[in-house]
Amino acid sequence: MTTGSELEAVYDRLGYVTVPAPGSTETDQGMDELNDPQGAEMRPGETFDAPPPPTPHDE
Fold it and tell me: DSSP letters along 19-57, please?
């Protein structure tokens, strides 16, 4: 069984943003990064197009 701090370390390494539980005294510092336009990788108005699903090849 992993502890919460171990999970947070894994999430940080993978780039996930953790949100504190309702009523928690934790502050979510990750939201500052999300709200920082200078740190954003995508430009305003830019959309993310997911790659098309793989299609089976006819042989």
Answer: -PPTT-----THHHHHT-GGG-SSPTT--PPPPPPP-PP
